[in-house]
Amino acid sequence: MHHDRIFLMTKEEKIQYWTDLSDRDLQVADILVNGGQYLWAGFMCHQVIEKIFKGYYMALLDDIPPYMHDLRLLAVKADFWTGLSEEQQMQVIEIMPLQIEARYPEYRSRIDASLTKEKCRQIVENTRKLQQWTKDRILSVK
Predict the structure, then answer these.
(1) Which of 10, 27, 60, 98 has the most C-beta neighbours closer than 10 Å?
(2) 36: left (phi over 0), alpha (psi -120 to 50) or beta
(3) What is the pLDDT, as a whole number, of residue 99?
(4) pTM given for the model
(5) Does position 23 have pLDDT exceeding 80, yes or no?
(6) Inter-axis angle of helices 38-61 and 117-141, to 10 degrees?
């Protein structure tokens, strides 16, 4: 779907759009971690949360989420950051650098060395739980 068409959708369609993208990215993260591509799996975890947070933003504010990758700021702008547990906030902070470090080669070797299979599997599992938590909140708003 062309990104401009999102403006023509209903609120529910927009929320579903972000949720579907988030679900697809989670499937890709699973494939990547199983294939040993830990850096890219981490990047996809960031994408999963970014998109589900944008769906939650839409549910709460009935407005197109801003074009940004800062997960914490996105949650702050939609006024749900303080609704996250301290553990969830730490998970968000942990995956935020993966978005930058996967995209820019000068950062890759540093993060690549720290992402073991076990660590990456844990990040994917935490992402799955945070995504589900956010989906549950979206349903309670609709």
Answers:
(1) 98
(2) left
(3) 77
(4) 0.89
(5) yes
(6) 10
